[in-house]
Amino acid sequence: MRSLQTGPGGLGLRLFAVRLGKIFSNLSVVGLVCSLCGILAFAATAMIFLVGLIIIVMTVGLIFAMVPGFFDKLMSVMQVSAEISTFFLKNFSYFAALAIGGAVVSFLLLLTDKSVRHTGRLVLSGLVIVFTLIAIFVVVGGGGR
Amino acid sequence: MNTLHIKIRGVDRKSMPRIAVDGESVKCVKNEFGSYEATVQTARPEAEICVFSLLELRLPLWWLYALISFVVSVFGIFNPPYNRACLVPDVRLKVMLAERTDLSVIFYPARPQQRAAEFETNMPVYEAANVWTLDRIARRRRRILLAFKIVVWLVLAFVAGYFLAKAL
């Protein structure tokens, strides 16, 4: 009987394509997370400010007596958050391109495997594209870029 | 023309073995119960069936594929792990064919040097091999890749440390 241990060349290339597809899928998720970080960090800055205001109102201003330099601390935390948000928003286009590009390449490469259906990965790639497009609309619509 | 209907059960999606009938690779389709099925037509009165698994590290250009994957996946961070166990089924059998022959191949869990599968069929079957074997070459290559990865990461850490120290 003929040994098929090393397999025909086409099959080997297909396995390699699937591996690359999974790598691009992982990269696209990272791209999506970084894209969302820009938006979420911006929201986090606003949230920190809101929490600070609520604390001041709830303690009727006593927080300034209890925690000396409360306002300075609040502002410094907000500044750090704003810097993080700025970094992610500044590079938003790169992260979004990585997410969409990676997801599309992953989708195409995983479709080349006819013997095993990579349904989970394919759905993941589709979701990454959808969420990245939503993030793009939010950033472009909000004047982030 | 004889028809051979093959059904494979007891395998998970990742280690899906591939089938060759008379040296020709056969496409399997997953059915609604999670088993894999293939139908082959042949004029011969018997068929030689080979069930095999193809490990990526046994490919002819494995080092090139591994290197490209390593670079693309940002030094292996996003690279899915290679098969750790490196166990492959070595199942070769000859089955006599009737006009329609049904052959079920039921796999056991992968354990080295243990029986790989049982067969259910309406025709006589002659086993040439039926065992899970440890692919030593694939295992050695996996270790080589692991060592390479560690060396690259150490070099990267030294380079990063050097530039960081210079910047500070």
Q: Helical stretch count of chain A?
A: 5
What percent of the residues of chain B sit in helical stretches (DSSP H or I)? 25-40%
Strand adjacency order, main sheet of chain B: 4-5-1-8-9
* Cα end-to-end separation of chain A: 64 Å
Our measurement of the CA-to-CA distance between the termini of chain B, rounded to an integer number of angstroms, reads 79 Å
Q: Number of DSSP helices of chain B?
A: 2
Which strand-content bin applies to the residues of chain A?
Answer: under 5%
Oligomer: heterodimer
Query: What share of the residues of chain B does DSSP label as strand, in percent?
Result: 35-45%
Structural class of chain A, by secondary structure, is mainly alpha
Cα Rg of chain A: 23 Å
Mean pLDDT of chain B: 87
H/E series of chain B, N to C? EEEEEEHEEEEH
Low-confidence stretches of chain B: none
Major sheet characteristics of chain A: none
Task: Name the largest protein-protein interface in this structure.
Answer: A-B, 24 and 30 residues
Q: Helical content of chain A, roughly? A: over 70%
Q: What is the SS-derived class of chain B?
A: alpha+beta
Number of strand elements of chain B = 10
Task: Name some characteristics of this structure.
heterodimer, A: 145 residues, mainly alpha, 5 helices, 0% strand, elongated, disordered N terminus, B: 168 residues, alpha+beta, five-stranded mixed sheet, five-stranded antiparallel sheet, 2 helices, 10 strands, 38% strand
Write a compact overview of the structure shown.
The complex is a heterodimer of chains A (145) and B (168). Chain A is an all-alpha fold.
Description:
The complex is a heterodimer of chains A (145) and B (168). With 145 residues, chain A is mostly helical. Chain A contains five helices and no strands. In chain A, helix 1 packs antiparallel against helix 3 and helix 1 (9-58) crosses helix 5 (119-141). Mean pLDDT of chain A is 83; it is low at 1-8. Chain B has one domain. Chain B has helices at 62-72, 136-167, and strands at 2-9, 18-21, 24-26, 29-30, 36-42, 46-52, 87-96, 100-107, 117-121, 125-134. The A-B interface holds A 1-2, 4-9, 11-12, 15-16, 19-20, 22-24, 26-27, 30, 114-117 and B 13, 16, 18, 20, 23, 25, 27-28, 30, 48, 50, 52, 54, 56, 58-61, 65, 68-69, 72-74, 78-80, 88, 92, 128.
